[in-house]
Amino acid sequence: MKRRYFIWFAYDGSAYHGWQVQPMSNTVQAELQKAMSTILRESVEVVGAGRTDAGVHARMMAAHFETAVDFDTSAFRHKLNRLLPKDISVSQIKPVTDDLHARFSAISRTYHYYIHLSKDPFRRNYSYELHYDLDFDAMNEAAEALKSYDDFGSFCKTHTDVKTTLCHVTDARWIQESPDVWYFTITANRFLRNMVRAVVGTLLDVGRRRITLEEFRQIIEKGSRTEAGESVPAHALFLEEVAYDGALPDGRHNDI
Length: 256
What we know:
The chain is an alpha+beta fold. The chain has helices at 28-40, 73-83, 136-145, 195-207, 213-222, and strands at 3-11, 47-48, 57-67, 88-96, 108-116, 128-129, 169-178, 181-188, 237-243. The protein contains 5 helices and 9 strands, in the order βαββαβββαββααβ.
């Protein structure tokens, strides 16, 4: 009889064509399934909490899988980390009940998008370098306005098969990490494809005074992707956390 497990892991997405398995492209899901199947000696399918696009990173991603093989979770985690590429690391594996689902049981996801305002060779692979003045007060006003809406079709990649563009944003703001480094944090119950990068691109238009707060609101209300700003590059985007309702730990600690 198969048993369900949750697995928490992190990855540097630079070398991958996103999370989901794709023909002729290397993905995080493919690497994880290959390593797990090798160790367990049976075909394993991993169901992720969501998708990340090509080049996007995850500090904490969750997934579930099922297997009939009995194993020690701590030993299995150590074996996985030895077999997986260096840009993927597993932090925890835990048996769960069959009704817990990595995607549908999640109550929120949090993303961070990083920017830096001066040349920095050590940030260039994980942060978006900008060289113009930004009004962060105005950008935070606009970010706060996101919580007043529930339809984000303006920030959804066109020609996708999403059934709804409704999302519930509970947090959205710019945070200063150091004099020249900022990041945008946003939490919602779900995200549309390309949504965070499109939101950030449009907020940068606010910060550059290309559009006003009222125009930002109008962009959301029109629901047209062509009205919003350009999507910012993927390399500066991180999935920071996938949260559940307390039935699961946060995945940040190793097995004990």
